[in-house]
Protein backbone atom coordinates (compact mmCIF):
# COMPACT_ATOMS: atom_id res chain seq x y z
CA UNK A 1 0.00 0.00 0.00
CA UNK A 2 2.83 2.39 0.85
CA UNK A 3 4.39 2.08 -2.58
CA UNK A 4 1.27 2.71 -4.61
CA UNK A 5 1.36 5.44 -7.23
CA UNK A 6 -0.32 8.57 -5.94
CA UNK A 7 -0.68 10.64 -9.10
CA UNK A 8 -3.47 11.17 -11.56
CA UNK A 9 -6.80 12.92 -11.27
CA UNK A 10 -8.06 13.39 -7.76
CA UNK A 11 -11.41 11.81 -7.14
CA UNK A 12 -13.65 12.02 -4.10
CA UNK A 13 -14.14 8.77 -2.28
CA UNK A 14 -15.74 7.57 0.91
CA UNK A 15 -14.02 6.80 4.14
CA UNK A 16 -16.04 5.07 6.86
CA UNK A 17 -15.25 6.15 10.38
CA UNK A 18 -14.14 3.11 12.35
CA UNK A 19 -12.91 4.62 15.59
CA UNK A 20 -12.44 7.92 17.40
CA UNK A 21 -9.65 8.36 19.93
CA UNK A 22 -9.62 11.43 22.11
CA UNK A 23 -6.09 12.83 22.24
CA UNK A 24 -6.66 15.98 24.32
CA UNK A 25 -9.76 17.91 25.41
CA UNK A 26 -9.77 19.70 22.03
CA UNK A 27 -8.17 17.15 19.74
CA UNK A 28 -9.34 13.76 18.49
CA UNK A 29 -7.95 11.19 16.08
CA UNK A 30 -10.38 9.72 13.57
CA UNK A 31 -9.58 6.34 12.01
CA UNK A 32 -11.17 5.60 8.64
CA UNK A 33 -11.53 2.54 6.48
CA UNK A 34 -10.99 3.73 2.93
CA UNK A 35 -11.48 0.78 0.56
CA UNK A 36 -9.90 2.43 -2.49
CA UNK A 37 -7.13 4.27 -0.68
CA UNK A 38 -4.10 4.39 -3.02
CA UNK A 39 -1.53 4.72 -0.21
CA UNK A 40 0.33 7.79 0.96
CA UNK A 41 3.67 9.23 2.01
CA UNK A 42 4.38 10.53 5.52
CA UNK A 43 3.54 14.26 5.58
CA UNK A 44 0.79 14.28 2.94
CA UNK A 45 -2.75 15.47 3.58
CA UNK A 46 -6.31 14.89 2.40
CA UNK A 47 -9.15 17.18 1.43
CA UNK A 48 -12.37 16.59 3.33
CA UNK A 49 -15.75 17.70 1.98
CA UNK A 50 -19.03 18.07 3.92
CA UNK A 51 -22.39 18.42 2.18
CA UNK A 52 -25.59 19.66 3.85
CA UNK A 53 -29.01 18.47 2.69
CA UNK A 54 -29.58 21.71 0.75
CA UNK A 55 -26.35 21.21 -1.19
CA UNK A 56 -24.23 23.64 0.85
CA UNK A 57 -20.64 22.43 0.97
CA UNK A 58 -17.57 23.10 3.06
CA UNK A 59 -14.10 21.79 2.27
CA UNK A 60 -10.90 21.67 4.35
CA UNK A 61 -7.49 20.02 4.27
CA UNK A 62 -6.21 17.80 7.07
CA UNK A 63 -2.80 16.23 7.49
CA UNK A 64 -2.65 12.46 7.60
CA UNK A 65 -1.53 11.19 11.01
CA UNK A 66 -1.14 7.48 10.24
CA UNK A 67 1.96 5.84 8.83
CA UNK A 68 1.82 4.65 5.22
CA UNK A 69 1.93 1.06 6.56
CA UNK A 70 -1.12 1.43 8.82
CA UNK A 71 -4.31 -0.38 7.88
CA UNK A 72 -6.53 2.59 8.60
CA UNK A 73 -6.21 6.20 7.50
CA UNK A 74 -5.97 8.44 10.57
CA UNK A 75 -6.68 12.17 10.74
CA UNK A 76 -6.07 14.10 13.93
CA UNK A 77 -8.34 17.12 14.16
CA UNK A 78 -8.32 20.06 16.56
CA UNK A 79 -11.77 21.42 17.31
CA UNK A 80 -11.89 25.15 16.56
CA UNK A 81 -14.87 26.63 18.40
CA UNK A 82 -15.80 29.09 15.67
CA UNK A 83 -14.97 26.62 12.91
CA UNK A 84 -17.37 24.95 10.57
CA UNK A 85 -15.80 21.62 9.67
CA UNK A 86 -13.70 20.70 12.71
CA UNK A 87 -16.63 20.84 15.21
CA UNK A 88 -18.49 18.45 12.90
CA UNK A 89 -15.57 16.04 12.61
CA UNK A 90 -14.77 16.08 16.32
CA UNK A 91 -18.29 16.51 17.72
CA UNK A 92 -20.84 15.06 15.31
CA UNK A 93 -19.26 12.30 13.23
CA UNK A 94 -19.81 8.80 14.69
CA UNK A 95 -18.43 5.34 13.99
CA UNK A 96 -20.07 3.98 10.87
CA UNK A 97 -20.61 7.42 9.31
CA UNK A 98 -19.19 8.05 5.87
CA UNK A 99 -17.01 11.02 5.02
CA UNK A 100 -16.09 12.27 1.57
CA UNK A 101 -12.35 12.71 1.14
CA UNK A 102 -9.75 12.77 -1.58
CA UNK A 103 -6.04 12.32 -1.57
CA UNK A 104 -3.31 11.86 -0.75
CA UNK A 105 -2.22 15.38 -1.65
CA UNK A 106 1.17 17.10 -1.47
CA UNK A 107 4.74 16.07 -2.08
CA UNK A 108 6.92 18.88 -0.75
CA UNK A 109 6.36 18.40 2.98
CA UNK A 110 7.13 14.67 2.81
CA UNK A 111 9.68 12.40 4.48
CA UNK A 112 10.25 9.10 2.70
CA UNK A 113 12.75 7.64 5.17
CA UNK A 114 15.21 6.70 2.44
CA UNK A 115 18.03 9.11 3.26
CA UNK A 116 20.67 9.17 5.99
CA UNK A 117 20.46 12.83 6.91
CA UNK A 118 19.40 13.35 10.52
CA UNK A 119 15.79 14.38 10.95
CA UNK A 120 14.72 17.51 12.80
CA UNK A 121 11.00 17.93 13.42
CA UNK A 122 9.58 21.07 15.00
CA UNK A 123 5.87 21.14 15.72
CA UNK A 124 3.47 23.62 17.31
CA UNK A 125 0.09 22.36 18.57
CA UNK A 126 -1.75 20.34 15.93
CA UNK A 127 1.22 20.98 13.65
CA UNK A 128 2.51 17.74 15.17
CA UNK A 129 0.18 15.68 12.96
CA UNK A 130 2.22 15.32 9.74
CA UNK A 131 5.38 15.02 11.87
CA UNK A 132 3.73 12.15 13.76
CA UNK A 133 3.09 10.38 10.47
CA UNK A 134 6.83 10.72 9.78
CA UNK A 135 7.78 9.36 13.22
CA UNK A 136 5.34 6.45 12.91
CA UNK A 137 6.74 5.72 9.46
CA UNK A 138 10.27 5.86 10.86
CA UNK A 139 9.28 3.34 13.52
CA UNK A 140 7.49 0.97 11.11
CA UNK A 141 10.43 0.75 8.70
CA UNK A 142 12.90 0.26 11.56
CA UNK A 143 14.86 3.35 10.59
CA UNK A 144 17.83 4.24 12.78
CA UNK A 145 18.11 7.71 11.22
CA UNK A 146 18.92 10.01 14.14
CA UNK A 147 15.83 12.12 14.80
CA UNK A 148 14.79 14.88 17.15
CA UNK A 149 11.33 16.23 17.74
CA UNK A 150 10.81 19.59 19.41
CA UNK A 151 7.12 19.88 20.24
CA UNK A 152 5.53 23.06 21.57
CA UNK A 153 2.17 22.83 23.34
CA UNK A 154 0.25 25.23 25.52
CA UNK A 155 -0.22 23.03 28.57
CA UNK A 156 0.53 19.43 29.53
CA UNK A 157 -3.11 18.51 28.91
CA UNK A 158 -2.78 19.90 25.38
CA UNK A 159 0.09 17.61 24.42
CA UNK A 160 -1.18 15.48 21.53
CA UNK A 161 0.10 11.84 21.29
CA UNK A 162 1.84 12.25 24.65
CA UNK A 163 2.01 8.56 25.57
CA UNK A 164 2.89 7.36 22.10
CA UNK A 165 5.66 9.95 21.87
CA UNK A 166 6.98 8.74 25.20
CA UNK A 167 7.13 5.17 23.87
CA UNK A 168 8.74 6.22 20.61
CA UNK A 169 11.31 8.33 22.43
CA UNK A 170 12.17 5.46 24.79
CA UNK A 171 12.64 2.87 22.04
CA UNK A 172 16.39 3.49 21.88
CA UNK A 173 16.41 3.79 18.10
CA UNK A 174 17.91 7.26 17.91
CA UNK A 175 14.83 9.41 18.46
CA UNK A 176 14.85 12.12 21.09
CA UNK A 177 11.57 13.84 21.97
CA UNK A 178 11.72 17.28 23.60
CA UNK A 179 8.66 19.14 24.83
CA UNK A 180 8.12 22.77 25.63
CA UNK A 181 5.01 24.19 27.31
CA UNK A 182 4.19 27.83 26.68
CA UNK A 183 1.44 28.45 29.22
CA UNK A 184 2.08 26.15 32.14
CA UNK A 185 4.83 24.81 34.36
CA UNK A 186 3.51 21.61 35.95
CA UNK A 187 5.11 20.30 39.13
CA UNK A 188 8.00 17.97 38.36
CA UNK A 189 8.12 19.01 34.69
CA UNK A 190 11.58 18.57 33.22
CA UNK A 191 10.94 19.92 29.73
CA UNK A 192 11.12 23.52 28.60
CA UNK A 193 8.48 26.06 29.62
CA UNK A 194 8.77 28.86 27.08
CA UNK A 195 8.29 29.67 23.45
CA UNK A 196 10.87 28.27 21.08
CA UNK A 197 13.97 30.48 21.06
CA UNK A 198 17.53 30.34 19.82
CA UNK A 199 18.96 28.89 23.04
CA UNK A 200 16.46 26.04 22.88
CA UNK A 201 17.23 25.35 19.24
CA UNK A 202 20.98 25.39 19.94
CA UNK A 203 20.39 22.64 22.49
CA UNK A 204 17.97 20.55 20.47
CA UNK A 205 18.56 21.11 16.76
CA UNK A 206 21.20 19.40 14.68
CA UNK A 207 23.80 21.94 13.65
CA UNK A 208 23.84 23.06 10.05
CA UNK A 209 27.01 21.07 9.33
CA UNK A 210 25.08 17.82 9.85
CA UNK A 211 22.75 18.80 6.95
CA UNK A 212 19.58 17.78 8.75
CA UNK A 213 16.26 17.32 6.98
CA UNK A 214 14.14 19.94 8.74
CA UNK A 215 10.35 19.96 8.90
CA UNK A 216 8.47 22.73 10.74
CA UNK A 217 4.69 22.66 11.06
CA UNK A 218 2.23 24.74 13.06
CA UNK A 219 0.31 28.01 13.05
CA UNK A 220 1.81 30.64 10.73
CA UNK A 221 3.45 32.80 13.46
CA UNK A 222 5.00 29.68 15.07
CA UNK A 223 6.41 28.46 11.77
CA UNK A 224 7.77 31.88 10.83
CA UNK A 225 9.46 32.27 14.22
CA UNK A 226 11.06 28.81 14.19
CA UNK A 227 12.21 29.10 10.57
CA UNK A 228 13.69 32.57 11.16
CA UNK A 229 15.62 31.32 14.18
CA UNK A 230 17.04 28.42 12.19
CA UNK A 231 18.06 30.71 9.32
CA UNK A 232 19.73 33.08 11.80
CA UNK A 233 21.67 30.08 13.13
CA UNK A 234 23.05 29.41 9.69
CA UNK A 235 20.62 26.89 8.25
CA UNK A 236 19.88 27.31 4.56
CA UNK A 237 16.32 28.63 4.21
CA UNK A 238 15.73 26.28 1.29
CA UNK A 239 16.59 23.22 3.37
CA UNK A 240 13.88 24.03 5.92
CA UNK A 241 10.54 22.63 4.87
CA UNK A 242 7.61 24.42 6.44
CA UNK A 243 3.87 23.93 6.51
CA UNK A 244 1.65 26.67 7.90
CA UNK A 245 -1.78 26.16 9.43
CA UNK A 246 -4.22 29.00 8.96
CA UNK A 247 -5.64 30.66 12.06
CA UNK A 248 -9.02 30.91 10.38
CA UNK A 249 -11.09 28.35 8.56
CA UNK A 250 -11.51 25.37 10.86
CA UNK B 1 5.98 49.77 6.77
CA UNK B 2 5.63 46.60 8.83
CA UNK B 3 3.33 43.72 8.08
CA UNK B 4 1.16 41.19 9.85
CA UNK B 5 1.37 37.72 8.40
CA UNK B 6 -1.47 35.80 10.01
CA UNK B 7 -3.32 35.24 6.74
CA UNK B 8 -0.28 33.84 5.01
CA UNK B 9 -0.08 30.14 4.22
CA UNK B 10 2.33 28.29 1.96
CA UNK B 11 2.27 26.21 -1.19
CA UNK B 12 1.26 23.08 0.70
CA UNK B 13 -2.18 24.65 1.16
CA UNK B 14 -2.86 24.63 -2.59
CA UNK B 15 -1.49 21.17 -3.37
CA UNK B 16 -5.02 19.92 -4.06
CA UNK B 17 -5.98 22.93 -6.18
CA UNK B 18 -2.84 22.61 -8.29
CA UNK B 19 -3.42 18.87 -8.71
CA UNK B 20 -6.83 19.70 -10.16
CA UNK B 21 -5.35 22.18 -12.62
CA UNK B 22 -2.14 20.41 -13.62
CA UNK B 23 -3.17 16.80 -12.85
CA UNK B 24 0.27 16.10 -11.34
CA UNK B 25 1.84 16.79 -7.96
CA UNK B 26 3.00 20.41 -8.10
CA UNK B 27 4.34 21.31 -4.64
CA UNK B 28 7.73 19.92 -5.69
CA UNK B 29 7.66 21.92 -8.95
CA UNK B 30 10.09 24.86 -9.17
CA UNK B 31 8.90 28.26 -10.30
CA UNK B 32 10.97 31.25 -11.42
CA UNK B 33 9.63 34.63 -10.27
CA UNK B 34 9.16 36.95 -13.26
CA UNK B 35 9.86 39.97 -11.02
CA UNK B 36 13.00 39.06 -9.09
CA UNK B 37 14.19 35.84 -10.74
CA UNK B 38 14.18 33.80 -7.53
CA UNK B 39 13.59 30.09 -8.03
CA UNK B 40 11.47 28.44 -5.37
CA UNK B 41 9.73 25.13 -4.89
CA UNK B 42 5.98 25.62 -4.97
CA UNK B 43 5.76 24.13 -1.45
CA UNK B 44 7.53 27.18 -0.01
CA UNK B 45 5.82 30.03 -1.86
CA UNK B 46 3.45 32.38 -0.01
CA UNK B 47 -0.23 31.63 -0.43
CA UNK B 48 -3.32 33.67 0.45
CA UNK B 49 -6.55 31.69 0.23
CA UNK B 50 -8.91 33.88 2.27
CA UNK B 51 -9.74 36.05 -0.72
CA UNK B 52 -12.05 35.98 -3.76
CA UNK B 53 -9.41 33.78 -5.38
CA UNK B 54 -6.10 32.17 -4.50
CA UNK B 55 -3.08 34.46 -4.64
CA UNK B 56 0.43 33.00 -4.78
CA UNK B 57 3.36 35.30 -4.01
CA UNK B 58 7.12 35.03 -4.28
CA UNK B 59 8.69 34.37 -0.84
CA UNK B 60 11.67 36.55 -1.81
CA UNK B 61 9.99 39.68 -3.25
CA UNK B 62 6.26 39.21 -2.45
CA UNK B 63 5.21 39.95 -6.03
CA UNK B 64 2.27 37.94 -7.37
CA UNK B 65 3.30 34.67 -9.02
CA UNK B 66 -0.12 33.19 -9.71
CA UNK B 67 -3.79 34.03 -9.31
CA UNK B 68 -6.42 31.33 -9.49
CA UNK B 69 -10.16 31.95 -9.53
CA UNK B 70 -12.57 29.01 -9.41
CA UNK B 71 -16.29 29.39 -10.02
CA UNK B 72 -19.22 28.30 -12.16
CA UNK B 73 -17.34 25.09 -12.88
CA UNK B 74 -14.41 26.98 -14.45
CA UNK B 75 -10.88 28.01 -13.54
CA UNK B 76 -9.14 31.27 -14.39
CA UNK B 77 -5.38 31.01 -13.97
CA UNK B 78 -2.98 33.95 -14.31
CA UNK B 79 0.66 32.90 -14.41
CA UNK B 80 2.25 36.06 -15.76
CA UNK B 81 4.27 36.29 -12.53
CA UNK B 82 5.96 32.93 -13.20
CA UNK B 83 8.64 33.04 -15.86
CA UNK B 84 9.21 29.30 -15.87
CA UNK B 85 7.69 26.32 -14.13
CA UNK B 86 9.72 23.12 -13.95
CA UNK B 87 8.12 19.86 -12.88
CA UNK B 88 8.50 16.12 -13.27
CA UNK B 89 6.39 14.14 -15.69
CA UNK B 90 4.06 11.72 -13.95
CA UNK C 1 -17.66 8.11 -14.00
CA UNK C 2 -18.32 5.52 -11.33
CA UNK C 3 -17.16 7.74 -8.46
CA UNK C 4 -19.37 10.61 -9.49
CA UNK C 5 -22.39 8.35 -9.77
CA UNK C 6 -21.73 6.77 -6.44
CA UNK C 7 -21.29 10.08 -4.62
CA UNK C 8 -24.15 11.95 -6.22
CA UNK C 9 -26.73 12.99 -3.68
CA UNK C 10 -24.52 12.19 -0.71
CA UNK C 11 -25.32 14.19 2.41
CA UNK C 12 -23.03 14.37 5.43
CA UNK C 13 -25.29 13.19 8.23
CA UNK C 14 -25.96 15.95 10.72
CA UNK C 15 -24.06 18.67 8.84
CA UNK C 16 -25.80 22.00 8.45
CA UNK C 17 -22.94 24.44 7.97
CA UNK C 18 -22.33 27.38 10.17
CA UNK C 19 -23.21 30.55 8.32
CA UNK C 20 -26.48 30.26 6.50
CA UNK C 21 -28.85 32.68 8.14
CA UNK C 22 -31.03 33.93 5.29
CA UNK C 23 -33.69 35.39 7.57
CA UNK C 24 -33.61 38.90 6.09
CA UNK C 25 -33.85 37.57 2.58
CA UNK C 26 -35.30 40.73 1.03
CA UNK C 27 -32.08 42.49 1.98
CA UNK C 28 -29.82 39.63 1.00
CA UNK C 29 -28.87 39.20 -2.68
CA UNK C 30 -29.18 35.76 -4.30
CA UNK C 31 -26.60 33.19 -3.21
CA UNK C 32 -25.53 35.21 -0.14
CA UNK C 33 -25.78 34.35 3.57
CA UNK C 34 -25.68 36.71 6.53
CA UNK C 35 -22.77 36.81 8.96
CA UNK C 36 -22.50 38.65 12.26
CA UNK C 37 -18.72 38.61 12.46
CA UNK C 38 -16.55 40.47 9.95
CA UNK C 39 -14.48 38.00 7.94
CA UNK C 40 -11.02 39.18 6.93
CA UNK C 41 -10.07 38.61 3.32
CA UNK C 42 -6.60 39.30 2.08
CA UNK C 43 -4.71 38.79 -1.17
CA UNK C 44 -1.34 39.68 0.30
CA UNK C 45 0.59 40.96 3.30
CA UNK C 46 -1.25 43.60 5.32
CA UNK C 47 0.41 46.98 4.74
CA UNK C 48 0.99 48.99 7.91
CA UNK C 49 0.87 52.59 6.81
CA UNK C 50 1.86 55.46 9.06
CA UNK C 51 -0.69 58.22 8.63
CA UNK C 52 1.96 60.93 8.27
CA UNK C 53 3.14 59.06 5.16
CA UNK C 54 -0.40 58.62 3.81
CA UNK C 55 -1.90 60.69 1.01
CA UNK C 56 -5.01 60.37 -1.13
CA UNK C 57 -4.93 61.35 -4.81
CA UNK C 58 -7.28 61.87 -7.71
CA UNK C 59 -5.35 61.66 -10.97
CA UNK C 60 -5.56 60.59 -14.59
CA UNK C 61 -8.10 62.40 -16.76
CA UNK C 62 -8.08 65.55 -14.67
CA UNK C 63 -6.48 68.91 -15.45
CA UNK C 64 -5.10 69.48 -11.99
CA UNK C 65 -4.60 66.26 -10.01
CA UNK C 66 -5.78 66.53 -6.42
CA UNK C 67 -3.91 65.29 -3.40
CA UNK C 68 -4.64 65.35 0.30
CA UNK C 69 -2.37 64.62 3.21
CA UNK C 70 -3.82 62.78 6.23
CA UNK C 71 -4.34 66.10 8.02
CA UNK C 72 -6.02 67.70 5.02
CA UNK C 73 -8.19 64.66 4.52
CA UNK C 74 -9.30 64.69 8.16
CA UNK C 75 -10.37 68.33 7.74
CA UNK C 76 -12.82 67.47 4.93
CA UNK C 77 -16.54 67.28 5.71
CA UNK C 78 -17.44 63.76 6.86
CA UNK C 79 -20.47 61.55 6.51
CA UNK C 80 -21.51 58.56 8.60
CA UNK C 81 -23.38 55.98 6.57
CA UNK C 82 -24.98 52.63 7.45
CA UNK C 83 -24.88 50.11 4.63
CA UNK C 84 -25.26 46.39 3.88
CA UNK C 85 -22.15 44.88 2.34
CA UNK C 86 -21.94 41.81 0.11
CA UNK C 87 -18.74 39.84 -0.41
CA UNK C 88 -18.43 37.72 -3.54
CA UNK C 89 -17.31 34.81 -1.32
CA UNK C 90 -21.01 34.72 -0.36
CA UNK C 91 -21.20 36.43 3.01
CA UNK C 92 -23.27 39.56 3.54
CA UNK C 93 -23.09 41.81 6.58
CA UNK C 94 -26.05 44.04 7.36
CA UNK C 95 -26.09 47.54 8.83
CA UNK C 96 -22.37 48.23 8.82
CA UNK C 97 -21.54 51.74 9.94
CA UNK C 98 -18.76 53.77 8.35
CA UNK C 99 -17.39 57.28 8.69
CA UNK C 100 -15.43 59.01 5.99
CA UNK C 101 -15.56 61.41 3.08
CA UNK C 102 -18.02 61.12 0.21
CA UNK C 103 -16.39 60.75 -3.21
CA UNK C 104 -18.73 63.58 -4.26
CA UNK C 105 -16.86 65.86 -1.87
CA UNK C 106 -13.50 64.80 -3.31
CA UNK C 107 -14.71 65.21 -6.89
CA UNK C 108 -16.44 68.56 -6.35
CA UNK C 109 -15.84 70.86 -9.33
CA UNK C 110 -13.76 68.28 -11.23
CA UNK C 111 -14.18 68.41 -14.99
CA UNK C 112 -13.26 65.13 -16.64
CA UNK C 113 -13.78 63.22 -19.85
CA UNK C 114 -13.38 59.96 -17.91
CA UNK C 115 -16.15 57.39 -17.75
CA UNK C 116 -14.20 54.83 -15.75
CA UNK C 117 -12.00 54.76 -12.67
CA UNK C 118 -9.33 52.57 -11.18
CA UNK C 119 -9.25 52.55 -7.40
CA UNK C 120 -5.69 51.77 -6.30
CA UNK C 121 -4.15 50.73 -3.00
CA UNK C 122 -0.98 50.16 -1.07
CA UNK C 123 0.35 46.70 -1.90
CA UNK C 124 -0.55 46.97 -5.59
CA UNK C 125 -4.25 46.09 -5.45
CA UNK C 126 -6.53 47.74 -8.02
CA UNK C 127 -10.21 47.55 -8.90
CA UNK C 128 -12.17 49.19 -11.71
CA UNK C 129 -15.49 50.99 -11.17
CA UNK C 130 -17.47 53.18 -13.61
CA UNK C 131 -17.30 56.85 -12.61
CA UNK C 132 -21.10 57.00 -12.38
CA UNK C 133 -20.94 54.31 -9.68
CA UNK C 134 -18.71 56.25 -7.32
CA UNK C 135 -20.42 59.63 -7.68
CA UNK C 136 -23.99 60.61 -6.80
CA UNK C 137 -23.85 59.61 -3.12
CA UNK C 138 -22.78 56.03 -3.90
CA UNK C 139 -19.20 55.77 -2.62
CA UNK C 140 -17.04 56.92 0.27
CA UNK C 141 -13.42 56.93 1.36
CA UNK C 142 -13.75 55.76 4.96
CA UNK C 143 -11.49 55.65 8.02
CA UNK C 144 -13.85 54.57 10.80
CA UNK C 145 -15.86 51.38 11.18
CA UNK C 146 -18.46 51.09 13.93
CA UNK C 147 -17.20 54.26 15.58
CA UNK C 148 -13.61 53.05 15.80
CA UNK C 149 -10.54 53.74 13.66
CA UNK C 150 -10.44 51.23 10.82
CA UNK C 151 -8.12 48.34 11.72
CA UNK C 152 -5.33 47.38 9.28
CA UNK C 153 -6.83 43.93 8.58
CA UNK C 154 -10.03 45.64 7.42
CA UNK C 155 -8.17 48.12 5.23
CA UNK C 156 -7.08 50.76 7.73
CA UNK C 157 -6.09 53.46 7.91
CA UNK C 158 -8.41 54.17 4.97
CA UNK C 159 -10.46 52.01 2.60
CA UNK C 160 -12.84 52.57 -0.26
CA UNK C 161 -16.56 51.87 0.22
CA UNK C 162 -18.87 51.30 -2.73
CA UNK C 163 -21.50 49.11 -1.05
CA UNK C 164 -23.90 48.58 -3.97
CA UNK C 165 -21.23 46.47 -5.72
CA UNK C 166 -19.53 43.28 -4.47
CA UNK C 167 -17.13 44.15 -1.68
CA UNK C 168 -13.92 43.41 -3.64
CA UNK C 169 -14.64 46.79 -5.28
CA UNK C 170 -14.34 48.45 -1.83
CA UNK C 171 -10.55 48.37 -1.92
CA UNK C 172 -8.65 48.18 1.37
CA UNK C 173 -5.64 50.44 2.06
CA UNK C 174 -6.84 52.81 -0.65
CA UNK C 175 -4.52 55.57 -1.86
CA UNK C 176 -6.31 57.10 -4.82
CA UNK C 177 -8.68 57.21 -7.74
CA UNK C 178 -7.40 57.22 -11.33
CA UNK C 179 -9.90 58.73 -13.79
CA UNK C 180 -9.82 56.93 -17.15
CA UNK C 181 -11.49 57.18 -20.56
CA UNK C 182 -11.32 53.41 -21.05
CA UNK C 183 -12.09 50.60 -18.68
CA UNK C 184 -8.96 48.83 -17.34
CA UNK C 185 -9.69 45.55 -15.53
CA UNK C 186 -8.38 45.53 -11.95
CA UNK C 187 -6.64 42.81 -9.89
CA UNK C 188 -9.60 40.40 -9.81
CA UNK C 189 -11.46 41.72 -12.85
CA UNK C 190 -8.53 40.73 -15.08
CA UNK C 191 -8.67 37.13 -13.83
CA UNK C 192 -12.22 35.84 -13.91
CA UNK C 193 -14.20 38.24 -11.74
CA UNK C 194 -16.93 40.40 -13.24
CA UNK C 195 -16.11 43.85 -14.60
CA UNK C 196 -19.13 45.40 -12.86
CA UNK C 197 -20.07 43.12 -9.94
CA UNK C 198 -23.71 43.82 -9.10
CA UNK C 199 -24.66 41.46 -6.25
CA UNK C 200 -28.40 41.67 -7.03
CA UNK C 201 -27.72 40.31 -10.52
CA UNK C 202 -25.12 37.85 -9.14
CA UNK C 203 -22.42 39.22 -11.40
CA UNK C 204 -19.62 37.25 -9.83
CA UNK C 205 -17.58 35.97 -12.76
CA UNK C 206 -16.84 36.73 -16.39
CA UNK C 207 -19.92 36.07 -18.45
CA UNK C 208 -22.39 36.52 -15.55
What do these coordinates show?
The complex is a heterotrimer of chains A (250), B (90) and C (208). Chain A folds into two domains: 93 residues, Elongation Factor Tu (Ef-tu), domain 3 (Beta Barrel); 127 residues, Rossmann fold (3-Layer(aba) Sandwich), CATH 3.40.50.80. Chain A is of the alpha/beta class. The relative contact order of chain A is 0.16. Chain A contains five helices and eleven strands. By secondary structure, chain B is mainly beta. The N terminus of chain B is likely disordered. Chain B is globular and about 35 Å long. In chain B, the strands form two sheets. In chain B, strands 2-5-6-7-8 form a five-stranded antiparallel beta sheet, with no helix packed on it. Chain B starts with a strand and ends with a strand. Helix content of chain C is 8%, strand content 30%. In chain C, strand 9 and strand 10 form a beta hairpin. The N terminus of chain C is likely disordered. Classes of the chains: A alpha/beta (250), B mainly beta (90), C mainly beta (208).
What's the arrangement of secondary structure elements?
The complex is a heterotrimer of chains A (250), B (90) and C (208).
Chain A: E1 13-22, E2 27-33, E3 45-51, E4 57-63, E5 73-78, H1 86-92, E6 98-105, E7 119-124, H2 128-140, E8 147-153, H3 162-169, E9 175-181, H4 198-204, E10 213-219, H5 220-232, E11 240-245
Parallel strand pairs in A: 7-8, 7-10, 8-9, 10-11
Antiparallel strand pairs in A: 1-2, 1-6, 2-5, 3-4, 3-6
Chain B: E1 3-4, E2 9-10, H1 15-22, E3 30-33, E4 39-41, E5 46-48, E6 54-57, E7 64-71, E8 74-78, E9 82-86
Antiparallel strand pairs in B: 2-5, 3-4, 3-9, 5-6, 6-7, 7-8
Chain C: H1 2-7, E1 33-34, E2 46-47, E3 55-60, E4 66-69, H2 70-74, E5 79-86, E6 91-102, H3 103-107, E7 116-121, E8 126-130, E9 140-145, E10 148-149, E11 159-161, E12 174-180
Parallel strand pairs in C: 1-6, 3-12
Antiparallel strand pairs in C: 3-4, 5-6, 6-9, 7-8, 7-12, 9-10, 9-11
Amino acid sequence: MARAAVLGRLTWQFGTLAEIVRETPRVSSLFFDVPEWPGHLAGQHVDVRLTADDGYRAERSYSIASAPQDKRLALTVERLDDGEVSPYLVGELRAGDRLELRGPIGGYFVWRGDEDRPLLLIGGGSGIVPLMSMLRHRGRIGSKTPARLLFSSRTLADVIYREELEHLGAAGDGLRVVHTLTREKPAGWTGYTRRIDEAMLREVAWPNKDSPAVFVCGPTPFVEAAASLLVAMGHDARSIKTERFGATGG
Amino acid sequence: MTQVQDMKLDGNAIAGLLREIFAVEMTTARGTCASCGAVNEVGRVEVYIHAPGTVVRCPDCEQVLMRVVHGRGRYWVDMTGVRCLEFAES
Amino acid sequence: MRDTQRLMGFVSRGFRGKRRDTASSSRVPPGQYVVTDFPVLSAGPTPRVEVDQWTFSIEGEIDEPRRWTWKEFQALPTETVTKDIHCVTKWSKLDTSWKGVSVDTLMEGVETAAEFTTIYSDGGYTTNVPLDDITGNKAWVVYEFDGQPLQPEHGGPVRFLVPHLYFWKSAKWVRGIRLEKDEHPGFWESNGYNMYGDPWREQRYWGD
